[in-house]
Design goal:
35% strand, mainly beta, 13% helix, 334 residues, nine-stranded antiparallel β-sheet, 23 strands, nine-stranded mixed β-sheet
């Protein structure tokens, strides 16, 4: 008999092709598995499963020692929500993005949520970068030269889950990011003054995690379908009961496994039909796991997103000497 070979450990970290840096997403302090890794056009991409209602943390590093300082941004659904400045000397330490900062003392944690839909085109998100990048978690890596520390005069934004027009193609997606209740996280009050080697908006490299429901990952053949044991045939159950009653022992009946119902997606499918298909498969997956159903959450019109004045985190300004100032987090010591 061939020796037992343990299953290979799941891949959880996304590396660039040279392994200079890497990133991963964690849920409940555990890294999630990544699927279908690709490298193209200064971007490394993969897929992960969106676990409905779960908070997640985005992690960066450690990286190989490099010749430049770095600025790293966490970009959620197309919005830069947090930035980090790393010196070349300490760039080998891992760093965490635990949420979107909304004040100098509080953050709102990232949370997987069913996509929010509306039938009001005026209420739907019109920001091109958000609509284009919905369902993605990105780590943008920029090369910089840190000039020194300056007081942090950062102004903070309010972050809310994007609302999507239910008639758009994006409505066929499963999840986007919501933001949980505010938690205490005190900023240092300092920022780095930097010179950019890579222009803001054109990162040197990007690590991108595309998050989808398990059902959509199965539909796109990214992961294997969920399976469940099929009940034994009626005659097998009767034979087993009869044999047991006679005291002569019970025969071994092997459970057959069946794949979850396969639903094909084609370009000719209408949005309504596709959403219905996805909903049916998600409901089946939920039943197999003992959970509830799935599907987009339609936002009522009166649920208006609050607006808060202020610059987006990561915008830059110039000091009195003409140097670029970037409001970024200090390096973590943990």
């Amino acid at each position: 008999m061939a020796p037992f070979e343990p299953a290979a450990a799941p891949t959880t970290r996304l590396y660039d092709p040279t392994s200079a840096w890497n990133g991963w997403v964690s849920v409940d302090d555990q890294p999630v598995e990544i699927y279908r890794v690709e490298h193209k056009d200064r971007k490394s991409t993969c897929y992960i499963e969106a676990r409905d209602g779960k908070e997640f943390v985005v992690n960066f590093g450690p990286r190989l020692a490099g010749g430049t300082d770095l600025a790293v941004y966490a970009v959620i659904d197309g919005s830069r929500v947090e930035g980090l400045s790393l010196t070349r000397a300490r760039g080998t330490l891992p760093h965490k993005f635990i949420g979107a900062r909304i004040s100098s003392t509080t953050i709102r944690p990232f949370q997987f949520a069913h996509i929010a839909l509306t039938d009001d085109a005026d209420e739907a998100c019109q920001t091109e970068s958000v609509v284009k990048n919905l369902g993605t978690i990105q780590l943008e890596v920029y090369r910089t030269r840190i000039l020194g520390k300056v007081p942090n005069h950062e102004q903070y934004d309010s972050f809310e889950q994007p609302v999507v027009d239910e008639k758009s193609k994006k409505a066929t997606m499963s999840h986007s990011t919501a933001y949980g209740a505010a938690k205490t996280s005190v900023s240092s009050g300092q920022a780095d003054s930097v010179d950019w080697i890579d222009r803001l908006g054109s990162p040197f490299w990007t690590l991108e995690f595309k998050y989808r429901s398990r059902a959509l990952l199965e539909l796109e053949d990214i992961v294997k379908p969920v399976v469940e044991p099929s009940p034994p045939p009626a005659n097998a159950r009767a034979t087993s009961a009869s044999t047991s009653a006679s005291g002569s022992g019970s025969p071994v009946v092997r459970d057959k496994m069946r794949k979850a119902t396969a639903i094909s997606i084609s370009d000719s499918d209408g949005d309504d039909d596709l959403r219905a298909k996805v909903a049916r498969l998600e409901a089946e997956v939920g039943q197999l796991r003992g959970g509830g159903g799935a599907g987009g959450v339609k936002r009522e019109k009166e649920d208006v997103k609050p607006e808060v004045e202020g610059e987006r985190i990561g915008k830059t300004s110039e000091d009195e000497k003409g140097r670029t100032v970037i409001d970024l987090l200090d390096e973590d010591d943990d």
